[in-house]
What we know:
The structure is a single chain. The longest helix has 17 residues, at 4-20. α2 packs across α3 (67-81). By secondary structure, this protein is an alpha/beta fold. The protein has helices at residues 4-20, 54-63, 67-81, 95-98, 103-113, 133-145, 162-168, 187-203, 215-224, and strands at 25-33, 39-47, 88-93, 119-124, 149-155, 172-175, 206-209, 228-229, 238-239.
Amino acid sequence: xxxxxxxxxxxxxxxxxxxxxxxxxxxxxxxxxxxxxxxxxxxxxxxxxxxxxxxxxxxxxxxxxxxxxxxxxxxxxxxxxxxxxxxxxxxxxxxxxxxxxxxxxxxxxxxxxxxxxxxxxxxxxxxxxxxxxxxxxxxxxxxxxxxxxxxxxxxxxxxxxxxxxxxxxxxxxxxxxxxxxxxxxxxxxxxxxxxxxxxxxxxxxxxxxxxxxxxxxxxxxxxxxxxxxxxxxxxxxxxxxxxx
Length: 244
């Protein structure tokens, strides 16, 4: 039976194999415009046969101080897996990755390889604490000047709040799936979404509601004026061979 040191070594070997040999892949979930139901974007979601929950893989990378390496490997793989010239692609990224000193060089590499018509949205993960909001704001401005859009993920779940939205002014805000559940009968959730929408409209931010699974909740989201929707009701994550 492995002791704690042995388990840590085993984790290190596993993570090294996953990163170095690209033992992961992506599936792509559609995001629809609720106003007219047109396909607006896809989100690239990392999957790994060795780790059932992708969040655990990123937590392991964080623990091993290799989060940046895994993050940029995932971004690069997602972009090289699919060529979508006329539709946006959302790709998850951690705050510490986009403020990493080497990230601008990585972006230059991306710009050389991608089509000028390929629109990329860097979706900042909410599960990592933001230590320097001013630095993050500067990096987001830098990203925009280099042709990338920015989304804040899972508002209402982790580190991100409406204060963060006001400070960073992203292009997209994604609401946690908590807001989708029983939205049609929850006056409180409807009121909160309406308040968030008012801020988004003032700042020219698109609001995305995640985790939509029931037709009545989708109908309420549309009635409230939510711009974009994502969830199993609208479309499950698909392998690259099955996306448009």
